[in-house]
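quick q for whoever's on today - can somebody do inverse folding on this one?? i tried earlier but teh output was garbage lol. tokens:
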């Protein structure tokens, strides 16, 4: 599929898909005409990349995560839990946990507010 179709299917603007390619996060094939050709698997990959970026994960951490999501973290050596990439991922995990906790508190506050408004509206009837 071409970049426009990938954009339509994922909801990701063409400009962002090109940025993902510049950063090495997507690697489409090139047709003889020079047009990008994306595989079906790129739909899921682009969606995952977009989600990781929206959550605040820096692209420098997304690439090693995509390269080998289940194996050793790039930049570290096996058994080296003090590797630079491991430290970066550990810090990022803590940051994401903090954001999730903060967002959960915000969600709960909004939920309580809506419940109170609904209860007040029912009582006023």
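ok took a stab at it. sequence:
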């Amino acid at each position: 599929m071409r970049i426009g179709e990938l954009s339509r299917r994922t909801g990701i603007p063409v400009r962002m898909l090109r940025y993902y390619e510049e950063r090495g996060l997507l690697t489409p094939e090139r047709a003889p005409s020079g047009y990008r050709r994306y595989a079906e698997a790129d739909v899921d990959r682009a969606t995952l990349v977009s989600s990781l970026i929206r959550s605040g994960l820096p692209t420098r951490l997304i690439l090693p995560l995509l390269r080998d999501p289940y194996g050793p973290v790039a930049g570290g050596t096996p058994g080296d839990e003090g590797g630079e990439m491991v430290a970066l991922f550990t810090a990022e995990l803590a940051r994401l946990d903090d954001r999730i906790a903060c967002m959960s508190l915000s969600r709960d506050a909004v939920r309580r507010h809506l419940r109170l408004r609904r209860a007040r509206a029912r009582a006023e009837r």
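fwiw Strands lie at 29-30, 36-37. also Residues 76 and 84 are 7 Å apart (CA to CA). so keep that in mind when u check it
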